[in-house]
Amino acid sequence: xxxxxxxxxxxxxxxxxxxxxxxxxxxxxxxxxxxxxxxxxxxxxxxxxxxxxxxxxxxxxxxxxxxxxxxxxxxxxxxxxxxxxxxxxxxxxxxxxxxxxxxxxxxxxxxxxxxxxxxxxxxxxxxxxxxxxxxxxxxxxxxxxxxxxxxxxxxxxxxxxxxxxxxxxxxxxxxxxxxxxxxxxxxxxxxxxxxxxxxxxxxxxxxxxxxxxxxxxxxxxxxxxxxxxxxxxxxxxxxxxxxxxxxxxxxxxxxxxxxxxxxxxxxxxxxxxxxxxxxxxxxxxxxxxxxxxxxxxxxxxxxxxxxxxxxxxxxxxxxxxxxxxxxxxxxxxxxxxxxxxxxxxxxxxxxxxxxxxxxxxxxxxxxxxxxxxxxxxxxxxxxxxxxxxxxxxxxxxxxxxxxxxxxxxxxxxxxxxxxxxxxxxxxxxxxxxxxxxxxxxxxxxxxxxxxxxxxxxxxxxxxxxxxxxxxxxxxxxxxxxxxxxxxxxxxxxx
Length: 494
Prior knowledge:
The protein is α/β, with parallel strands linked by helices. It has two domains: 2-261 and 462-481, Aldehyde Dehydrogenase, Chain A, domain 1 (3-Layer(aba) Sandwich); 266-444, Aldehyde Dehydrogenase, Chain A, domain 2. The strands form seven sheets. A seven-stranded mixed beta sheet has the order 17-18-19-16-15-21-22, sandwiched between helices. It has a six-stranded mixed beta sheet with strand order 12-11-10-13-14-24, sandwiched between helices. Strands 1-2-3 form a three-stranded antiparallel beta sheet. The termini are far apart. 50% of the residues are buried.
């Protein structure tokens, strides 16, 4: 329901407008936000353009000197308060995000939204600990070196629709903790929780202009943001084609970029693995209707166990409950948007024409709307589109291998390299395969274990740079080295 430029979901009210310089700003044009659950219109969202981007960047620039001068300890109370506000609103966030993007409500409520506050809190404390920089001596030159982290300026953050709030805080946390000011561009297919984040920032008392939100379409608001000459850092999560466009636009100003671009990750199961554990994780790859960049969508099984695991996998997939993501017993909810359903179904239909064998699923679900059957293929050619390209939907394939070398070769036979999953009881083999697989993150006998201290990012076309830990601060800071001769000062302080 839309009343007076407020969208109401349950008892939660969300502004559809931009947040610039500490106040809400509307636009003449709007775009429609639709819930993937049932297709109902949630509201008309302000469609930003160069005008709103210019206003937001100007507000961020104006706020930057004071925010940067606070230092990590001075910023800590603001960010801790923001984390507390987020933590208190987890139920509201879960309701709004599930309504807006169709993700499972149970996962949002119990896990995903809780990570938002944790992201802010962790990076705020980590900045206090780590942004002091390293010091060391160059003994043969009688010199001392000190590393200094300076905030870089205005950070432009562009986040995707599959987990918009959590992934926004993953970027906002280190950007603000490092002393930058922020302009956030939410995804047009699921913008509402990013708008709530602006309300939380205001409630936490952050100075106006430190955090700004510009709603809009990527080709308009997004393009204006990445081209802006006063943007000092650009962090983008999304698809490879969009990243190429973003990169070309950012290159006009030599704006440093960080890209996380998805993957086509292998999940490798050796003959000595705990097969029950492996099967559980194989089925988990349908999480969030397959709309997860890290998913192990290419399941590679040792030939000696393939028939058994395929039969068990098929039975497990048949038990998955497709339906309303608000219900706790639902395993697979809707896809995000009609265009995306068409894209996913296109992959499936072309795979069938290319000769892949369908084991389960293969088309839209009988529920209609944006619901799609969990789909499983075998006999997929290594050079085919389905083996090579990211579907970003509930579509997996199973292939086999005979040797460790063949498993690694097939795992690496793609232009992506975000993650990999390996199941084996042989520790030496696990180490060899983890080293040999081209991926930014390898899980062994587990899946989706994340620690904010880890570097996160991919190889090849899965991205540029790393997020997490000190790697985030390396990106969101201008790093300076100060070197002086020992005993060269009239009044030394040390």
